[in-house]
Design brief:
Layout lengths: L6 E5 L4 H12 L3 E6 L2 H13 L4 E5 L5 H15 L4 E4 L14 H29 L2 E6 L3 H4 L5 H21 L4 E8 L5 H4 L3 H10 L8 H12 L10 E4 L8
Parallel strand pairs: 1-2, 1-4, 2-3, 4-5, 5-6, 6-7
Helix pairs in contact: 1-9, 3-4, 4-6
């Protein structure tokens, strides 16, 4: 699944699944443009990738801020000329009962997990339409497919990301643009590290494969959708959950 000659944007690239995705796409030959609000970690990762002989640049990005998204688009275009792949990985959530959520919390969750992918995709989709070529991959969550206890609004936002994927796939298929979605189950990331141990243990108990996913395993699914191996696949949702969310 080589990506030689391709340019890929990865949001949330400084840690977790975003970091693993940036590493996988760069190792496959893509010039990766790492976007994240965590500038220190993002710059460090870009430098590490370049030390390995891979092509990577960090560009500061806050996916909740339209002006930041536009500045990122301009910088990415100046550096690379065009973008072939957009991997929307940035996201955030917190386990908390719905009745304890505040409106500010709702807005943060929706902005990061739904509006962020929408804005970043919109920033890069027009040149893809003009070239009649492109790959959009959004990392949602199985919470968006089946719901998740203590993550009600997060589930709603991730469900919206799935619906966005399907709608955009229908709209852009005639332009040879593939739009797909990866839905992780519980994954061993810094975000999950903040979850109480008893909840993590419960996740492991109910997962048929009896463990958490590793970020690189989610990144493998993103790489598949970003590659020519998925050239006739669009509007699809792939769960990477160790069997947790099997559907009949």
């Amino acid at each position: 699944m080589g990506l030689e000659g391709k340019v890929a944007v990865v949001t949330g690239a400084a840690s977790g699944i975003g970091r693993a995705t940036a590493e996988k796409l760069a190792a496959a030959g893509a010039h990766v443009l790492l976007g994240d609000i965590a500038a220190g970690a993002g710059k460090a990762l870009a430098a590490q990738l370049r030390e390995r002989g891979l092509r990577a640049d960090f560009i500061a990005l806050d996916v909740t801020d339209p002006s930041s998204v536009e500045a990122f688009r301009r910088d990415a275009t100046q550096r690379a000329g065009h973008v072939d792949i957009v991997a929307n990985v940035a996201g955030w959530g917190k386990t908390e009962p719905f009745i304890k959520n505040t409106p500010d919390f709702w807005r943060k969750v929706v902005d990061l997990n739904l509006m962020g992918p929408i804005m970043v995709t919109r920033a890069f989709i027009e040149p893809m339409i003009e070239r009649k070529s492109g790959k959009i991959v959004t990392v949602s969550s199985d919470a968006g497919r089946v719901g998740s206890l203590g993550e009600t609004v997060y589930s709603a936002a991730k469900g919206g990301a799935i619906a966005f994927t399907k709608g955009l796939a229908r709209e852009t298929a005639r332009f040879n643009i593939n739009v797909n979605c990866v839905c992780p189950g519980p994954t061993d990331t810094p975000l999950l590290a903040a979850v109480p141990d008893k909840i993590k243990e419960a996740f492991i108990r109910v997962t048929p494969m009896q463990r958490l996913a590793q970020p690189a395993e989610i990144a493998d699914a993103v790489l598949f959708f970003a590659s020519d191996a998925a050239s006739f696949v669009t509007g699809q949702v792939l769960s990477v959950s160790g069997g947790l969310t099997m559907a009949g």
